[in-house]
Structures are given as structure tokens and as C-alpha cells.
Amino acid sequence: MNEKRSHPLIIGHRGAYNEAPENTLKGFKKAIELGADYIEFDVHQSQDGALVVIHDVDILRRMGYNNLIEQMTLKELQKLELGEGQRVPELWEVLRLAKGKVNFLCEIKAKGISEKVITLLRDEDVIDSTIIQSFYYKELLEVRRLESELELALIVPITEEYIPEWDKRKELIENVVKLNFPILVTRHKNIDEVFLHFSHKHNLKVFAYTINTKKTMERMVKMGVDGIIVNTISKAKKILKQKD
Hints:
With 244 residues, the protein is of the alpha/beta class. It has ten helices and nine strands. The protein is globular, with a radius of gyration of 17 Å.
């Protein structure tokens, strides 16, 4: 992702969040059909060691009862109904479905799974088309140690909050620079022209999440962010087409 671009990458949030069930094979197929540059997804590990693609640490939001992902077996997870006949996919299924058709923004959600994730990325020959992101900088350092060819993106701040004070936002940028990660991911509300200029001055690419409205998309595109993580891919494609 080192080439100079005239418009931001369109990154499908959990696949095609508003257009198909999140983090499902159907959602990832839809994101590809809609022309996303990247699909973003989240990786946890089941009780029996399977790498699964699901966002939350538990299934409360999706299913209404509070079981932790790490305490459920793959078989138990795949019994869950996620809508439209979809189930929790394994990471290898997502990679095999989408490789060669779209790039991957793979978020490591659970600590201690980096080596297993990298092994699978190598096995599926998708290192060159994958960015690894995480809130956990130590996981990213471990990824770098194991596979130096992978691009890394740190999500800041870890609380996901909006930070109005420039000094604190500047400190976030400086911390990412010190860690030598090439990409900073943050809430779109944290990004203004000063934030973006300071990041680019330090050779950082900036990805904005999660963008829903046309107004916010247009603002991010106009400022020149490097990637927009969106819930509605078709809306983002339309805005970029109008810009061209």
C-alpha cells in the first residue's frame, strides 16, 4: 500500500456492514461485489483453538446471552444464526473466499494469537495483500518480529474516545511514530486538517473509522485521509466517483 493515491482506500467495515450480515462470508462477498479496496474483519480464537472472524469478545450483542468467544468451541460458535442463514466463519474461509479479489484489513482482537494468524496468512499466500491492525501495540510488535513484510496499523486511542485537545491527539501521533508503525487508525472525529498534516509530515498514513454519513465521507475525502472504513460501500463509491 505504498503507492500514491488520488483518493482514499474504501475499506468495508466488517465486510459490508449495512448491506449484509457483519463478518460473514455473505458480507465479504457483497463487499467484493460493491468494489471495496479492502475488507475489514476481526479475529478471535475459540476455546478449541480455531481462528474465527467475529467482532465482540462475547456473543451478547448478537445473540442476547453472555458467553465469551474464548470459552466456546468452534462447533458451538458455528451453531449461532447471524442472519440470512450465515454463521461464524473461520479465518481460513474468509481468506480463501476473497484472496485475489480484495485486500484484507485484519484486526487482531485477542492477545496471543499473532503467530497463528501469520501462519495462516502465509499458508494462504496473502501476506502482500494484508494489513494487520490492533489496539494492542505489543501484538503488532510481535507480528513485526515474526513477519516483517506485513504492514501494521495501530488503532488509537485504545478507549476509542473522541479527544478534543490537540496536545493529546498530537501525542497519539507521536506514539505511533515512535513505534514505527506506518498506519494510524482513529475515529473520524479525531481527524482534522492539523491532525492529518502532522501525521503525513511524519510519513504516517491515516485511516478513519467508522463512517456512516455522506457529509463525513465528503469531509474525509476532501481532507485527504488515506483510508475510510465505511458501513455503506456503495455510498463511498458514489462519492469518490463524483470527486473524479
